[in-house]
């Protein structure tokens, strides 16, 4: 008999931790011969009805033969997977390869029969649908392209698992059994279903951390002081609405700590515990996790330090912590976490080290650093901003920013998301989630440790070869508002949380200081806005003057937003910075702005602290007032584009305005909050980010299409790539020869001009005769390639004499021909020299880059980037994204070049890399873009086995 060891070694890469529909976790792994007892125990806990649905007959127990068959697999034609929690089976799935008659078969048969069994206590958790994703991936790996399943008509739950998966399928009914057949090739629908399930599951896992009905603090000291006692005090003082428990092995039974019931262990608590905050020393954490796991605590916040941030020993301790927690189906925030806060009146949770929780608001805040978290909480509090939720993940060994993004996407209490990240564990996934989240609500990100080149200690992340500037460009493409400092993040967050999105870049400026108005004007120009001439109200302007001027500006169709500048009033007795008129001015500005809620308003103040405090005093962070200003003045009608707020559910649907706090909460003051800034540059930068984000939102509603070209030979290219990889024989891949690269690119309609080798002057002359004069002579040595500035290129050689002279000059200046590798190429039409590159990064995915050729652009980093595949709109924006783009469009009277041809080239390169992931690098340099058409003068292509695509496989948590 064939045993697993006869056919395949244990496939450890099939193991995975997954998040289920209810937010809990399970481990999926292959079933082995050592699982016999687990299988029998599992089967005994399955109801008779579920057994009947599985075997189509009463089947009370498994025979020894059954147990052997279900635990012995060859991992090729017969595969079994189990979902486990706490080491015990909660569900199983298996497939058996069959032939066209439905009989057992071996490869090349490409169909298999699949069957599931889920323990009744775990049905409804999404276990079967998750197992289907994983068993389908295993089947594809083993050459199986189609599954068949026979299901009783009454087993509607299992039929729904198959029909909801999104695969192309057909159904038949015969002999009282429903037969389902479906192809395993992922489809757009199956991928969408998978990602929707991922979003719901991960969002639910974070929701369980933020909305517990009961919290146990493990490690509460018997005397005042210490981390555990501080967390307990913060929970009590925040008014936590659920049950609180203090845990310390030194407590006496029946005792209390600060009025909170105290226990020696969580196992002694005779009620469910939904969240445990662990503050004991690192060496005692495993015991606490084990006790929580046995009790079924679904979430842990581990504040304890001494893990990966402390070195190799701590890193291994962190891995074991995650493995232990996941074995119980538990999710962890931390270790080395600062904690979590939820200001909802239904929860009022402050399970953190922050002694003063923020006021309730509509901003969500995520940080990886506790110190930065403290600073941000303090800064937001000073500026009068409230939060919906706060999560500080520390080493983020399990719960990460991706999970929190999943939660915020559908959280009705969060309108703006702020994230401080020191590393991005899965850039490809983060970009995908950020793009979807940004279609619903603004996402502001600042990234620390961006120039160190290494991840902070404690963070286990994928390595990326992309520079920080490239990652930033890709985040912006996904709709992320990328800022450089935490101050800028707070500035942008305040504007986005309290104001509508601007309909365009036109800015009206008004105030009582001409100089401050001019500074604001200059800042607007520098940040790409289009300011109108500042309106000077003079230093004697009253609050009523400000109000009337703001109403006029908001009613003007020629502007999209307003910046109000204010300095202390100058009266008969000189400046009066502490005048009560500060509060009067704040009230006047709020009245005017609330009456015209379609345009954003920001205030720049100098030495007017009272004004800033008065403007931030409002409890609401959203405008909610009639479109009629006090006194009867008319306002401009709200612009649909300025009311973009949320499009939860369908990322392609145009965004809609979310209900405001005033709409839904009768306990909040509906006064209109206007953000105030102590410097013009800060206000303008925040407004500029809002303008760019609003433009992205409008474009995201119509994202463009990936162009289909009829002359592309996709299948022929795939065969040729297989041949070239086989010829190379190097598992690491290889760079193609010039001829092979030219031939491969030509299959995608990318023509590369011939470059004939010229190892001596005679060969150069012969090449020129073949190509026809005029020609170019250039070196291809790596240190001179594409460096016309060094003199390694001679252009417009009109005859043999000039060619021989140029050849002699090159060899005399730079060395022997064998070192220079000279080539001769026909002259291309004059134009602008550009560079097009594509690379597959193991962490971020496939990236397309574009810039002008030359040392200056390279030195300044003037290169644009987009994720592949690029749409028509992406290609157009990529061309225009570089600072030197005006050179392509007729700068200083020069003739515009053929940018449509350039955009087509970008899309063709994108298609090549997207269709064939074995093409890991493409470099086209230079690409000369003329007034009509373009010429690709040099090309380099590298092939290699494609890196694994973790975003296309079944759902799984990062491995530990």
Describe the structure.
With 960 residues, this protein is an alpha/beta fold. The chain contains 29 helices and 41 strands. Strands 1-2-3-4-5-6-8-7 form an eight-stranded mixed sheet, sandwiched between helices. Strand 3 (78-85) and strand 4 (88-98) form a beta hairpin. Helix 15 (486-498) crosses helix 21 and helix 18 runs parallel beside helix 19. The two termini are 35 Å apart.
Question: In percent, how helical is the residue content?
Answer: 25-40%
Report on the biggest sheet.
Answer: 8 strands, mixed
Portion in beta strands:
15-25%
Distance between the termini: 35 Å
Characterize the overall form: flat
């Amino acid at each position: 008999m064939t045993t697993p060891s006869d056919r395949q070694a244990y496939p450890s890469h099939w193991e995975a931790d997954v998040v289920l529909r209810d937010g809990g976790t399970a481990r999926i792994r292959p079933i082995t011969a050592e699982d016999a007892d687990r299988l029998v125990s599992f089967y005994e806990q399955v109801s008779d009805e579920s057994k009947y649905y599985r075997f189509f007959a009463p089947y009370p127990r498994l025979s020894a033969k059954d147990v052997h068959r279900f635990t012995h697999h060859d991992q090729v034609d017969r595969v079994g997977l189990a979902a486990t929690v706490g080491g015990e089976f909660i569900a199983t799935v298996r497939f058996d390869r069959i032939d066209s008659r439905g009989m057992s078969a071996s490869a090349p048969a490409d169909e298999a029969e699949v069957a599931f069994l889920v323990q009744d206590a775990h049905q409804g958790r999404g276990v079967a649908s998750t197992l289907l994703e994983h068993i389908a991936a295993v089947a594809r790996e083993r050459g199986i392209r189609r599954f068949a399943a026979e299901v009783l008509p009454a087993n509607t739950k299992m039929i729904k698992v198959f029909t909801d998966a999104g695969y192309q399928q057909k159904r038949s009914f015969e002999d009282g059994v429903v037969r389902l057949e479906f192809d395993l090739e992922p489809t757009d629908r199956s991928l969408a279903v998978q990602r929707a399930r991922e979003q719901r599951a991960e969002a639910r896992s974070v929701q369980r951390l933020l909305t517990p009905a009961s919290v146990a603090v493990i490690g509460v000291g018997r005397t005042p002081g210490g981390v555990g006692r501080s967390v307990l005090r913060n929970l009590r003082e925040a008014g936590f609405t659920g049950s609180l428990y203090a845990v310390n092995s030194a407590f006496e039974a029946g005792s209390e700590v600060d009025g909170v019931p105290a226990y020696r262990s969580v196992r002694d608590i005779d009620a469910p515990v939904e969240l445990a905050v662990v503050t004991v020393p690192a060496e005692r954490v495993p015991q606490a996790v084990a006790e929580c796991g046995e009790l079924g605590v679904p979430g842990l916040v581990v504040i304890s330090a001494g893990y990966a941030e402390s070195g190799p020993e701590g890193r291994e301790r962190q891995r074991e912590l995650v493995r232990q927690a996941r074995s119980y189906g538990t999710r962890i925030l931390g270790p080395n976490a600062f904690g979590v806060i939820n200001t909802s009146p239904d929860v009022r949770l402050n399970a953190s080290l922050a002694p003063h929780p923020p006021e309730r608001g509509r901003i969500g805040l995520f940080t990886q650093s506790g110190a930065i978290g403290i600073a941000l909480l303090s800064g937001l509090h000073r500026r009068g901003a409230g939060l919906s939720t706060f999560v500080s993940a520390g080493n983020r060994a399990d719960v990460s920013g991706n999970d929190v993004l999943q939660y915020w996407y559908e959280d009705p209490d969060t309108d703006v998301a702020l994230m401080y990240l020191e590393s991005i564990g899965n850039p490809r996934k983060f970009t995908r989630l950020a793009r979807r989240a940004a279609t619903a609500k603004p996402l502001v990100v600042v990234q620390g440790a961006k120039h160190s080149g290494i991840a902070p200690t404690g963070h286990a992340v994928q390595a990326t070869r992309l520079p920080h500037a490239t990652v930033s460009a890709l985040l912006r493409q996904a709709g992320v508002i990328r800022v450089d400092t935490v101050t800028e993040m707070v500035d942008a967050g305040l504007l986005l949380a309290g104001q509508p999105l601007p309909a365009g870049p036109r800015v009206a400026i008004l105030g009582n200081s001409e100089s401050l108005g001019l500074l604001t004007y200059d800042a607007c120009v520098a940040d790409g806005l289009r300011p109108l001439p500042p309106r000077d109200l003079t230093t004697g302007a009253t609050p009523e003057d400000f109000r009337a001027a703001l109403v006029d500006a908001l009613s003007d169709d020629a502007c999209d937003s307003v910046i109000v500048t204010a300095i202390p009033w100058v009266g008969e007795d000189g400046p009066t910075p502490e005048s009560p008129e500060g509060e009067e001015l704040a009230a006047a500005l709020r009245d005017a702005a609330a009456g015209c809620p379609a345009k954003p308003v920001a205030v720049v103040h100098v030495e007017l602290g009272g004004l800033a405090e008065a403007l931030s005093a409002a409890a609401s962070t959203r405008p909610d007032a009639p479109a009629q200003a006090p006194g009867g003045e008319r306002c401009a009608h709200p612009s649909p584009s300025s009311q973009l707020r949320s499009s939860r559910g369908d990322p392609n649907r145009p965004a809609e305005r979310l209900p405001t706090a005033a709409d839904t909460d009768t306990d909040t003051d509906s006064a209109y909050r206007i953000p105030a800034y102590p410097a013009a540059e800060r206000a303008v930068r925040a407004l500029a980010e809002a303008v760019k984000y609003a433009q992205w939102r409008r474009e995201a509603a119509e994202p463009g299409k990936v162009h289909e070209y009829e002359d592309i030979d996709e299948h022929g290219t795939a065969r040729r790539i297989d041949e070239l990889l086989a010829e190379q024989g190097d598992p690491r891949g290889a760079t193609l020869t010039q001829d092979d690269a030219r031939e491969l690119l030509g299959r995608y309609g990318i023509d590369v001009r011939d470059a004939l080798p010229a190892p001596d002057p005679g060969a150069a002359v012969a090449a020129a005769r073949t190509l026809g004069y005029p020609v170019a002579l250039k070196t291809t040595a790596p240190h001179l390639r594409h460096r016309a500035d060094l003199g390694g290129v001679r252009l417009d050689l009109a005859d043999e004499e000039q060619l021989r002279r140029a050849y002699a000059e090159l060899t005399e200046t730079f060395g022997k021909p064998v070192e220079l590798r000279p080539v001769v190429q026909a002259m291309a039409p004059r134009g602008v020299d550009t560079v097009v590159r594509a690379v597959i990064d193991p962490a971020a995915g496939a990236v397309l880059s574009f810039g002008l050729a030359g040392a200056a652009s390279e030195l300044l980093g003037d290169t644009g980037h987009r994720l592949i595949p690029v749409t028509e709109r992406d290609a157009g924006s990529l061309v225009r994204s570089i600072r030197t783009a005006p050179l392509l469009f007729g700068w200083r009277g020069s003739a515009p070049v053929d940018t449509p041809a350039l955009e087509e080239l970008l899309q063709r390169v994108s298609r090549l890399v997207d269709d064939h992931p074995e093409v890991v690098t493409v470099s086209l340099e230079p690409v000369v873009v003329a007034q009509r058409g373009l010429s690709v003068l040099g090309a380099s292509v590298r092939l290699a086995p494609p890196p694994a695509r973790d975003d296309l496989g079944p759902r799984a948590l990062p491995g530990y």
